[in-house]
Amino acid sequence: MIQTFGDRINFHPHIHVLITEGGTAPDGAFHRLCRFHDEVIQEIFTHEVFSLLLREKLIGLPLVEKILRWRHTGFNVHSKVRATSMREAERVGKYMIRPLLSLKRLFFDETAGKVCYQYSRHASQEESMHYLEFIARVTSHIPDKGQVMIRYCRLYSNAHRGKIRKAGVDPSHPPVIEDEITSVPQRGWAEMIRKVHEVDPLCCPTCGGRMRIIAFIEEPKIIDSIIGHLKLTFEAERPPPPHNVQQELLMAAEERGSIPENLCC
Q1: Which of 180, 152, 167, 178 is nearest to 27 (CA)?
Q2: Residues 9-28: pLDDT tens digits?
Q3: What is the pTM of this model?
Q4: In whole angstroms, how large is the CA radius of gyration of the chain?
């Protein structure tokens, strides 16, 4: 689903995609994925968009390279919304094909002679504009004649469902195979941290007991929020020397015939 508008009826092009959490094998079995990596999907999506623009000669390579060097390129992927029931799936579907604006949030201020639009559920969040600007915003989102805004691909396409029915298979109940989640070896990374920093990451600093890993947090924004809330700092009092400096110190100590304990491997 292609959408060109934001909450304020402004120009904000983005795509809503309703996908399955996995794919079908040649034998018809459905393999469910354990997770989606937004960073990888974002990188692939960015590459595909720029490749299309370059093929159509709508953008130059120097500008593409410049945009890719920006801290925020304008591309973002968010795949955290999940539909675990029919009701949630309907809610997500309605959100994807929602109209440009809601008439319940639109009213005319006769005193000021402006159109007011409440772009959020809170009454205080509204924007007033001249009626000509309002018309310009609305008409800018009208698609071109023959432009397809909603596309159905693969499992959701009518052609795929027709092939499945002809084969005598019920498309609504395929065999589902849960792919195992690859676990991170706890001993490996914990041992490396203990060996390098001489601190056991799985030892509770309060009671000294052994901690158990519940989940891994990979989102940078969530990690920064937790660090900021706990007011944590990770500045070492004396950082370890670079590898080449450490080798020089070891060589010098060997020549003197004494190797400091903190340099022994």
Answers
A1: 167
A2: 988 888 888 888 877 777 76
A3: 0.52
A4: 28
